Amino acid sequence: AQTVTQSQPEMSVQEAETVTLSCTYDTSESDYYLFWYKQPPSRQMILVIRQEAYKQQNATENRFSVNFQKAAKSFSLKISDSQLGDAAMYFCAYRGDSNYQLIWGAGTKLIIKP
Amino acid sequence: GAGVSQSPRYKVAKRGQDVALRCDPISGHVSLFWYQQALGQGPEFLTYFQNEAQLDKSGLPSDRFFAERPEGSVSTLKIQRTQQEDSAVYLCASSLWSGPSGNTIYFGEGSWLTVV
Question: pLDDT by residue (tens digit) across B71-92?
């Protein structure tokens, strides 16, 4: 069975600085998708960035980028120029190519210090 | 609608009471998912619909949980004889088609259930 692990329950960063959130996963599948979701206090899950496992190039969305290491089964999220609005829970999620379920990590609470 | 809509947003139920949670997915979305998120944890899969067909209900924790999507659009998650361990946020999500590849999943804001 697939598992997703986020080892950092909480991270804090100074506004305008860069922070990296860690995620590791375990799978025997060769084709899959990885996601980072942001969950503010409203509890709505908002997709931040996604990575297809077959793509070697790391995904980037504005200030958000990932470091995808397929062999190491690692998928970290880097947030550059942190803003107060980035404060939220961040969840890493996995989805197999032949499956529809999302498998979630336990989340990392990101605190932005002004 | 513009997004996935869930109601009620907040529900307080007395132990033993039945509750019904509604999800209105994005118009035209084939796939619909229900997830349960306990406090301080990631979401856990409950069930999956493709149009009106419930293709997977393996995540439903007990036979007190029942979900339906009779016309392939709006879905209802029903919990009978609620227990305190049912207290959680229930997230509904939808996606345009059934295949996982390249398929973005959109989430609602969730229904917060507190059983007292």
Answer: 999 999 999 999 999 999 999 9
CA distance B88 to B53: 25
B42 and A107 in contact by Cβ < 8 A? yes
Which tokens belong to B113? Answer: 């259930």
CA distance B22 to A54: 37
Task: Compute, in degrees rounded to 10, the torsion defined by CA atoms A107, A23, A51, A39.
Answer: 10
Report yes or no: A83 and A15 within 8 Å, Cβ to Cβ.
yes
Q: What is the pLDDT of residues A25-46, one digit of tens each?
A: 999 998 899 999 999 988 889 9
The residue with tokens 């118009």 is B27
- Out of B48, B105, B110, name the one closest to residue A44 (CB): B110
Out of A42, A95, A102, closest to residue B109 by CB: A42
